[in-house]
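TL;DR need C-alpha cells for one chain.
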Amino acid sequence: MKGLTLIELMLVVAIMAILLSVGVPSFYQLIAQEKLTKQSNELVAQLSLMRSEAIQRQSVVFLCPLYAGQCDADISSGIAGRRLYVWGSGFVSAARGQGASAIEHNQSGDQVVQFVDLPPSVLIVSNRKKFSFDPRGHAVSGSIFLCAEGQPGRRIVISALGRVRVERQAQDTCELFNL
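>> reply
TL;DR here they are.
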C-alpha cells in the first residue's frame, strides 16, 4: 500500500503549524527592520545629494522637516532633557540663491530641490531644526534618529566637515521617544 495514514498527515500538519508560528513573527520583524534601513539609506542619499548640490551651486543648501507644508514651523519637545525636533510628514531640501535645476520657490525665495514624504511607520527626531551645507560642503553638525516600533533605531550623524554616517542604536534609545 502506498499513501499516508491519517495520523501521518496530522503529524505533518502539526509540524507545519509549529514552524509557521515561529517563522511568521520573525518575518514581520524583518519587514519592519528593512523599512527602517530603507528610510535611513534614503535620508543619507538625500544628505549626500544636498552636499553635492551645495558644492555645485556654490550656495547654501539646507534640509528641514515639514509640518503642515511649512519648513520653518517650530514643533519641538524636551525629550530626555534635550530639545529635539520631531519630524512631521516629510522634509524638503532647498537652496539659497540662483540655481538651474530648481523646481519652485518657497516664501523665503529659496529654490526647492526636492520634497520627500515620510512613511507613518517610522518616527524621525533630530537635534536641529535645519541641517545645511555651505558652498565648501561643510555642514552644521547634528544627529537624526530614526525609530520604528520594536526595532533598534538608527542614528544618522552629520559631522562639521560634511561626512554622513549611520550608527545602529540600542533598543532603549527609541523608547526615549515613546515607541
